[in-house]
Amino acid sequence: MKQPIIITMGDPTGVGPEIIMKAWLEDNFSDVQRPLLVAGDGAVLQRAAAIFGAEVTVEALADDGPQALASHRLLCGERSLLLKKLSELPAADLVYGAPDLACGQAMIRYIEWACDHCLSGEAAGMVTAPVNKQALRAAGCEAPGHTELLAARCGVEKVVMMLAGSRLRVCLVTTHLPYSAVPMALTPEEILSTVQISAVALRRFFSLDSPRLAVLALNPHAGEGGQFGDEEQRLIAPAIESARQQGIDASGPHSADALFHFAVQGAYDAVICMYHDQGLIPLKLLHFDDGVNVTLGLPIIRTSVDHGTAYDLAGSGRASSASLLAAVTLACQMAS
Fold first, then answer.
1. Hey, what's the signal peptide range on this chain (predicted)?
2. Is there a binding annotation on residue 261?
3. Is there a domain that residue 271 lies in?
4. 16 partner at 20 to 30 Å CA-CA among 136, 157, 243, 289?
């Protein structure tokens, strides 16, 4: 039996539980080539299934055999889904969009359990549903979010956030910073390490022998020879040259206003972006529903939905499960 992909349930008061149930009830996981196991809460998942008019039962499993990672199984008609029951929250009392301390503690438990079983080799990878960062902090998590928590758990200092779709991949040098802080955060070393980690991961997990990386400029028109800024000359070009000396197919600095046209035509395998919106605006324009967040640089496979807890949709059944299905599919492809 192949190693499973673990799906962490995320915030019990967000859309995570219902997009998992929606995808499963609609049989969207039928083509997935590995067993799936949800790390979460049986009662919360039952409440999520009820949104779609489905009655789901939770069956206890013996902790041995090919289902050794699971402790329970969700049943709905002929469908079954493995569940590792890691919390017993009072589902009926939970308020959508208002995670309490117990919810925050449960979110951490789901993530850490999945990560540990990926590190041990018992699971092939993990797919994460969205969490609430404030709830994580209230529960004692010092990391500001999913990515940092996983990096610390895996003993890794530097990771790269990649957002991926069928037409475009973007890798970010800086992530959640005020735009005014980006120039000060950029160094040749940070840019180079982002290029290196991206190249290694694309070779290892995406079967690209020599990935073609386009490195973007920070300023309009790539600085226009220094008229609009000199970060290209001082910071970005030296990093590209160092990467090329290491045998990495990196080019640039490219002007961001034109480069994405060529990237979506297939001229590049990934685009290295200097800041968050530089990469995510074109990515979400093309892949708003099916984009996948991938953490590069970890010793494990981790993909995630490319959206948040969506409290405005939680409990309505209207949240799309497309990004979750894309994240599961990509995790399986990476594991192969």
1. none
2. no
3. yes
4. 157
